[in-house]
Amino acid sequence: MENFVSENVKNIEISGIRKFFNKVVKIPDAVSLTVGQPDFKVPDSIKDAMIKAINDDKTAYTSNAGIEELRDEISSYLKEYFNINYDKEEICITVGGSEGLLSTFTTFINKGDKVLIPTPAYPAYESCVKLLGGKVINYELNSDFSINHEKLEKIINMESPKVMVLSYPCNPTGAVLTKEDKEKLYKLIKNKNILVITDEIYSSLSYEGEYYSLAQYEDVKEKVILVSGFSKMFSMTGLRLGYVCAHREVIDSIVKVHQYAVSCAPSVAQWGAYEGIKSCLSEVEFMKDEFIKRRDYLYEKLISMGFEVNLPKGAFYIFPSIKAFNMSSDKFCERALNEAKVAMVPGSAFGSGGEGYIRISYCYSIEDLEKAVNRLGDWIRKV
Ligand SMILES: Cc1ncc(COP(=O)(O)O)c(C=O)c1O
């Protein structure tokens, strides 16, 4: 039967994040800091809006691009909070950021097209590109996971990639795009024939003052596709809602792909997110403040244990170096799981640039974090 599976599918693997998550289930009493599912409940008004949508029989297909009310709200939200301009006709509601990413890559990638992807990075980018027969070219980051603009320019000049991926705030490193990065990237892509896919699913969890995105420039708008979503923002990962914003000239092509993949995003979840943007932004701020407290706690504990680690500026992941332990990240996580009963994700799950690091997700309760830190501390003294 194996022979029936396409070469492109054979070429990709189940995400390393999930692989580790699945191992945890087999270790009783393990603390799992593996996946990006916040421990907060979906805000009540979102739940009520979804129940109302069901009772009002709003359960049929919506338009392919999604309900106008939600697209309108997203448009105002992006404008007001991020200084990003897309009108409702330039927005497509998707089944999570995941489908948004796959539909976007499918829209643009021909067999053999080169796509520039940072390493380390969220594994879906590479898999989407491989699935479509595209060619992945990795660009390496600085040691603090900021963009190395010189290297990036060099690789763009050398390889002439069709697409480049940006992903800030970053899963797995917690890095954000700075003002300087934004300006340098703008200068770089302005005169180049390149499309940028920017995954900003953690934008609502950016801990620094001002938010920077390449999507803020009007004059390169046709070169930028923004992918985002509500999984992390409203702690509603299972409700599967995201969105893609793109210039008028290409959004219809993305909607075309999205239509054949899923017809439309779930209607009830769309009404929930609509209510969420209208009335739950203070709850998002509350969650963000909680994540900052957890980040600070974890960062200080890791430093006191002797880890070399950057302070994350967004998202809810921290990415300490384990190079001092002389073990691969896979081995480190395997041993930490079996011996300390703490599950974390090996950096190698995020590509070659992630080797030598581990990803710890801190969207878990402070009690879980404390338990994990105590166990790790005891274990490390013996390793
Ligand atoms: C960087 C990034 N992009 C996209 C996604 C996809 O999220 P979803 O499909 O739940 O919206 C995730 C999920 O963890 C992510 O970390």
TrEMBL record:
Its cofactor is pyridoxal 5'-phosphate. One of its GO terms (molecular function) is transaminase activity. InterPro entries: Aminotransferase_I/II_large (IPR004839), AspAT/PAT-like (IPR050596), NHTrfase_class1_PyrdxlP-BS (IPR004838), PyrdxlP-dep_Trfase (IPR015424), PyrdxlP-dep_Trfase_major (IPR015421), PyrdxlP-dep_Trfase_small (IPR015422). It holds the Pfam family Aminotran_1_2. GO terms for biological process: amino acid metabolic process. Keywords: Aminotransferase, Pyridoxal phosphate, Transferase. Residues 29-376 form the Aminotransferase class I/classII large domain. Its EC number is 2.6.1.-. Belongs to the class-I pyridoxal-phosphate-dependent aminotransferase family. This is Aminotransferase. It comes from Clostridium bovifaecis.
